[in-house]
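Technical note accompanying the year-one report. For the benefit of new consortium partners, we illustrate the data format agreed upon in the data management plan: each record pairs a sequence with a structure-token string. No post-processing was applied to the example shown here.
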Amino acid sequence: MKQIIYPRIGETVYRETLPNGLPVCVVTKPGYRRAYALFATRYGGMDMRFALNGEWLDTPAGIAHYLEHKMFDTEEGNALQILAQNGAEPNAFTSNAVTAYYFDSTEHFFENLRVLLSFVSVPYFTDESVQKERGIISQEIGMIEDNPEWQVYKNLIGLLYRSSPARVPVAGSVESIAGITAQTLYDCHKAFYTPGNMCLTVVGDVDPQEVLRLAREVLPAGSGPAIPRDYGEEEDLTPHEKEKTVHMEVSMPTFLLGFKCAPVGDGPEQMRQNLIGELACDVLMGESSPLYARLYSEGLINGSFGYSFDILPGAAYVYAGGDSNDPRAVKAAILAETERLLKDGIDADYWIQLQRANFGSTLKSLNSFESVAMSAVEGCFHGYDPFQFPEFYESISRQDLLDFIRENICEDRAALSAIYPKEEPSPCAL
């Protein structure tokens, strides 16, 4: 394996791509008893339409998540139970673009890694087990739909996008999953759970060569073809709709304000653009910003306020929100602060403070095995080296942030999703 030493952050990483196309990344952490493994495929909730054997297929919404649920089934039993009995803490998740299976353990690491690689690469479904899972996932969907935080986010994405599959919940709907069969799951596994579309990352005090040897032994010798995907029609950068309000059982209004951004392609520029977006949000709305202090003192936001810049396949957006008695006033204040920043610029001392804080936060994240592993996977899937973040930070200027704000944080790109408390019924007249 190729050893890469990153002296600026004190990390040593081993990388190699197997003959079957699987990238393997091992981040060594000498002296730690705990070790963590993450086995991921570049396949998520947005990958509903793809080409297989020259034919375009439309699969039900929620199928990637459904497949994740069923992957733990094996002919020998349930992989979750096997891993747990062996001292591991396993789990999995499905996002818009990734499905990942992972565990951490302080003992029997390579035994557990063998189990992980085996069940993810060799599916086992029956029509009966798939049918049984439908009820479990339907209940999960129902719980999500009743969650105000989920509803306000789902409504925002629906406001921002006309055709992007980002509009579709990762878990799908009760109606969409009704048509999923064992054969559908096998077809999707065959398409996307192939070494060339996956990545294995291990973090801990483990032998990189042993990781590589085990992966060679357990996983298929070959890989399937690259799968073309369709993420909908290319959209303009104006939101589909501007505002949506609904009423639910909440104690006070909650909201999300979104700004539709230009899609970001793969490669090092994706990481750089991601850092620019995060820093721009910090400058504009961070806890140390003038805007945050003003909104908080006026009672327009509270500790629930947060924000993010997200990059998805064919889509990117900024969103901010939390609890507020006047979401429209918060929106107006953010847009006004944007104008002020573009006029006055970013204070030099504040910029230095922000750079140091963000760099320190990223450096601190290296203490989290989960964060390190996920960063390595994202870098693998999108063609950049996440461990070079010091160099990326150094390439970013105040003008880059102002350009991002000027282009994206404006009324033309904005959409507001809000949830208000249900109105009390009027008392009956006597």
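Partners are asked to follow this layout when depositing records. The chain has two domains: 2-218, 243-421.
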